[in-house]
Amino acid sequence: MASSSIKKGLTYEFKKGLWTENAVIKLLLGMCPALAVSNSATNGLAMGLASTFVVMSASTFVSIIRRIVPKEVRIPTYIVIIAGFVTLADLFLKAYFPPISKSLGPYVPLIVVNCMIMGRAEFFASKHTIPPSLADALGTGLGFTWVLVLMGAIREVLGSGAIFGYVFMGEDVFTPWVVMILPAGAFITLGLLIGFINFATSRKSSKGACS
Q: What is the pLDDT, as a whole number, of residue 170?
């Protein structure tokens, strides 16, 4: 019975980050990378996976040391931990995926100040054991990733007729919307995405109340 309850709890902690407490579309956290690097599906996937690695690693480490870190220095401690894992992610991308690393530019190092990651460390991992902290971090990271990939795919398809770098609509059949691969395209895509999701959610809630 206890094991079943624990599994249900871990499932909840994982799922909430995917949707109900999604960092981008629900909590509006991590806006800088979401807007800056989502000009292609590849960049969105790379940033999402790098952020997922960092949030999982940092949350696990914070959960391990949560009882020995003095409250007065917890924030600086968490920043140092996050910075260490961000450095690993940045060096990995530079070593094995140089084009992607160059494309993402300074936004990988800026994961250090991503409030989504600091938020999970401060408000969850520092108060829970490793399993729920890991489940929470994985859900948060994957929730962040799918939004960035979706935004990147939409902008890439409309902006260049391609997806993951593969061009499937030439200029002879489709005129690219250049605005979609510019900064303005990020705001347009995110605004429409959040609006559509909120509309669909409220409509579903209304139907549920009527029935």
A: 77
Three-state secondary structure call for residue 167? strand
- Residue ranges making up the domain that contains 64: 2-147
Residue 183 domain-assigned (yes or no)? no
Look at residue 208 and tell me if it is in a domain.
no
pTM over 0.85: yes
Residue 83 lies in a domain: yes
Two structure tokens written together for 191: 């605004």
Q: How many secondary structure helices (H) and strands (E) does the chain include?
A: 8, 2
Cα–Cα distance for residue pair 105/154, rounded to 1 Å:
21
Residue with structure tokens 């160059």? 102
Percent above pLDDT 90 for the chain: 73
In-domain check, residue 154: no
CA distance linking residue 18 with residue 14, whole number of Å? 7
Amino acid identity for residue 75 in this structure: I
Average pLDDT, integer, range 187-196:
94
Q: Are 58 and 88 in contact (CB under 8 A)?
A: no
The number of folded domains in the chain is 1
What is the C-alpha to C-alpha distance for residues 150 and 101, in angstroms, rounded to an integer? 20
- Please tell me the predicted confidence (pLDDT) of residue 70: 93
The pLDDT of residue 209: 62
Residue 17 in contact with residue 143, Cβ under 8 Å? Answer: yes
